């Protein structure tokens, strides 16, 4: 497995990168989780944070990459974190999850399966399982916009 100090370093790198993207989009880091908690409390629903554990996702993602791709990815993350140039506000708003998906699929196509498709299936399973196990009528899940179509598809197409 991929763990230890290397995994911790990559997790910290991804957290800093995510935080920078959030602040660049004028959205406080973690705001979606706070909003979901408020909504679930308001409607009396169970809140499900049902994404796959980051360790499994990172391990699957790294196994999908060649050594050259791993090096390129780490360099790209460092550049993204250390860049001091700010985009104009209208350009920040224009970057959608679908544009990021397209960039990811062209730069690192092997990452789509572990980072997107597998997680879509896992999140759909978590929502269904939570509802069934806890006999809840309503479940609130936090799902990134880029995962919405895949999770909805997985929920609708799974007859289990």
Please supply descriptive tags for the structure shown above:
160 residues; two-stranded parallel sheet; mainly alpha; 71% helix
Summary, kept brief:
The chain has one domain (4-157). Helix content is 71%, strand content 4%. It has eight helices and two strands, in the order ααβαααααβα.
Number of helices: 8
Low-confidence stretches: 89-94
Distance between the termini: 31 Å
Give, in spatial order, the strands making up the sheet with the most strands: 1-2
What's the helical proportion of residues? over 70%
User: Radius of gyration, rounded?
Assistant: 17 Å
Number of domains: 1
Structural overview:
It is a single chain. With 160 residues, this protein is mostly helical. The protein has one domain (4-157). Helices cover 71% and strands 4% of the residues. It contains 8 helices and 2 strands. The protein has helices at residues 4-24, 31-43, 54-64, 67-82, 89-94, 97-107, 112-133, 145-157, and strands at 46-48, 139-141. α1 crosses α4, α3 (54-64) runs antiparallel to α7 (112-133) and α7 (112-133) packs across α8 (145-157). The protein starts with a helix and ends with a helix. Keywords: Signal. Residues 1-24 form the signal peptide.
Secondary structure blueprint with pairings:
Elements: H1 4-24, H2 31-43, E1 46-48, H3 54-64, H4 67-82, H5 89-94, H6 97-107, H7 112-133, E2 139-141, H8 145-157
Parallel strand pairs: 1-2
Helix pairs in contact: 1-4, 3-7, 7-8
Signal peptide: 1-24
Keywords: Signal
Organism: Aegilops tauschii subsp. strangulata (Goatgrass)
């Amino acid at each position: 497995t991929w763990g230890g100090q290397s995994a911790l370093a990559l997790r910290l790198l991804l957290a800093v990168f995510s935080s920078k993207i959030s602040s660049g989009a004028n959205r406080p880091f973690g705001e979606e989780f706070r909003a979901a908690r408020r909504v679930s409390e308001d409607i009396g629903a169970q809140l499900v944070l049902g994404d796959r554990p980051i360790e499994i996702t990172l391990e699957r993602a790294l196994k999908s990459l060649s050594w050259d791709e791993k090096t390129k990815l780490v360099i790209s993350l460092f550049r993204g974190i250390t860049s001091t140039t700010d985009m104009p506000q209208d350009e920040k708003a224009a970057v959608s999850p679908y544009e990021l998906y397209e960039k990811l699929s062209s730069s690192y196509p092997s990452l789509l399966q572990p980072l997107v498709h597998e997680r879509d299936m896992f999140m759909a399973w978590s929502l269904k399982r939570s509802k069934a196990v806890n006999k809840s009528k309503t479940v609130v899940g936090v799902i990134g916009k880029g995962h919405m179509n895949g999770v909805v598809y997985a929920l609708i197409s799974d007859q289990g």
